[in-house]
Amino acid sequence: MANKGAKLGIVTIGQAPRDDIAALFAAQAPAGTEVVLRGALDGLSDAEVDTLKPESGADTLYTRLRGGRDVKISKKAVIARSPAALARLRADGCDVLVYACTGEFPPMPGDENVLFPSRVLNGLATGLLPRGRLGLLIPLAEQGEKLASKWARPGLEVVAEALAPSAGPDEAAAAAGRLAAKRPDLVAMDCMSYTPATKDWIKGPLGVPALLAITATGRVLREMME
After folding, report:
1. Which residue ranges form the domains of the chain, and what is each CATH number?
2. For 145-194, how does the pLDDT look when each residue is reduced to its tens digit (9 = 90+)?
3. pTM here?
4. DSSP conformation letters of the chain
């Protein structure tokens, strides 16, 4: 358990800096916490990133690069580069680590005691909705089948709607309306790049509670660190 003045390390599947992610986690962490963020794709040029193309829907991750460019990248490539990013954060002296992606990942070297947001969201959804219909907001339509399978469990029906995290309020409201038509009991926003503003835009059209990955994970981190 970390105390005031601790150092929080964040791995993003894209590139540093990601001031938006760092700021949201800093807002949840205890006062005095230093936030250090590193990316799995740090050190790569745009041309090199563009070679990391997904092999399939199951191999597809969405992220935002340094400079704000949205890309689809290979999950396998991210997994291969993640242990080095975790090792750099440990070398930085970070007391608590979070892997800032809602995807499911296999065991990786150096992932001991790392907080994965997918486990936070899944735990919350399981506790709040033991059975019923779970709605998902996902970045890319081609991820729908894979992510519905990730969330599947007995007694739960999963419905999904795609919404790019870079979308504005009108697009967000329209996607929320389409998802609301599927009558979910609870919604999980399955991407770390969705923001509190995105949640504000979708709440009205949805009419049901929505779980935002980055703030849900940040509140768990605060509980760990206080």
Report:
1. 7-116+215-225 (3.40.50), 119-213 (3.40.50.2300)
2. 888 888 999 999 999 999 999 999 999 999 999 999 999 999 999 999 89
3. 0.88
4. ---TT-EEEEEESS-S--HHHHHHHHHHSPTT-EEEEEETTTT--HHHHHT---SSGGGEEEEE-TTS-EEEEEHHHHHHHHHHHHHHHHHTT-SEEEEE--S-----TT-TTEE-HHHHHHHHHHHH-SSEEEEEEES-GGGHHHHHHHH--TTEEEEEEE--TT--HHHHHHHHHHHHTT--SEEEE--TT--HHHHHHHHHHH-S-EEEHHHHHHHHHHHHH-
